[in-house]
Amino acid sequence: MLSIPFGRTRFCDGVSRRNFMKVGALSFGAMNLTLADVFRAEAAAKQHDPFARTRHKAVINIFLGGGPPHQDMWDIKTEAPAEVRGEFKPIATNVTGIQIGETFSRIAKMADKFAFIRSVVGARGGHDAYQCTTGWPQQSLASMGGRPSLGSTVTKLQGNVDPSVPPFIGLAEKTQHVPWSDAGQTGFLGSTFGPFKPSGPDMVNMTVNTANRDNLPDRKKLLGHFDDMKRAADYAGALQGADAATERAFDVLTSSKLVEALDLSKESPKVRARYGDGKPYKYQYDGAPTANEHLLMARRLVEAGARVVTLSYGRWDSHGQNFDLVRDHGGKLDQCLTALVEDLDARGMLDDVTVIAWGEFGRTPTINKDAGRDHWPQVSCAILAGGGMKTGQVIGSTDRTGSNAKERPVGFGDIFATLYHNLGLNSETTTILDPTGRPQHLAEGKALPELV
């Protein structure tokens, strides 16, 4: 805790005492950084316009928690029996030969910007985000903490783009079914490499300090107090070796690039309207809301310097009312996902930023008595965009009923190898050391040649 004096108050005993403004340490993952630490790191970065974008590779990982129904989205089965094919019809896209579900009319109009994987295999069947954030089964290296997520691994290997912006940010709102709001675990790397969660108490601390900037005393007086504090601390030996950067630490609190990125009021009403807000939140139950604005926030965070942003979108566990749920969730996802890709493209970021949306498994081919589909880990789907990939194509196929992969089965590890490739990391040659000192590969698959 740092206490900053900013004036005097005369008490009834006649003694004038200084007031103090207390500022807590900022916390990113499990790393507690003092104000001086944060600023000293900032000073080491290139000086540039605070709103300018640093060009870097990034991933926005959209988790569709609950298991989206593949045969009602990207893999419509018109030739299947009535008890399988469901209520949706296929619609043509702007890519000859590719059809997708009628709920996704916006995506259909820009399918050349997307790649549809219809044959994702290897799901373990758990209602959690683990495989969609790590690419590994949950039991892998469990004895030493498990495998680290993509965000944690990238934080370890590539670090910050901008020292004032965490490289790994989790936007997932807290859900009643907790595993659906998992932003990505640190595994054997330890909590130091965990995600920064803006919805947590650390962000509240930062926001309060920033929001109160207009109520703080004159900046010059505060900076003068920093000078006094620094001299006193140096005299005591507490800041030996500190540079002049400490004097500007106050600016970190009052002009945080991270807080600016999270402030959607900075966006025009027109842009926000294109994304929509995803309300009213329907079929949420114990899952995540359809928070469309999280995709806009993800774009702003990447623009500010984040490398990996994860979020949980909707609750897709459609044991009942499957088709009503897809109309609601699918239509909202259609709006915000296309807005995100259009936005990235217009800003010259699409080749650098990979976007993926997927869930932990698929749904049963047969429709149950409640007009729902049940859990089906045998095959699922994913949609990707950006990252310099070859889009405008479908990868893999399933059989007539959507029960199993028929052509080109794609594992979670293959998809993660592709994500790492897009970030500039070769998953076949790059390793990280586990707690025993043994090198571990980043993924158990190979980057998809169709995409890269």
TrEMBL record:
The superkingdom of the source organism is Bacteria
Question: Gene3D superfamilies recorded for this chain?
Answer: Alkaline Phosphatase, subunit A (3.40.720.10)
InterPro entries (alphabetical):
Alkaline_phosphatase_core_sf, DUF1501, TAT_signal
Record-given protein name: DUF1501 domain-containing protein
The organism named in the record is: Gemmata obscuriglobus
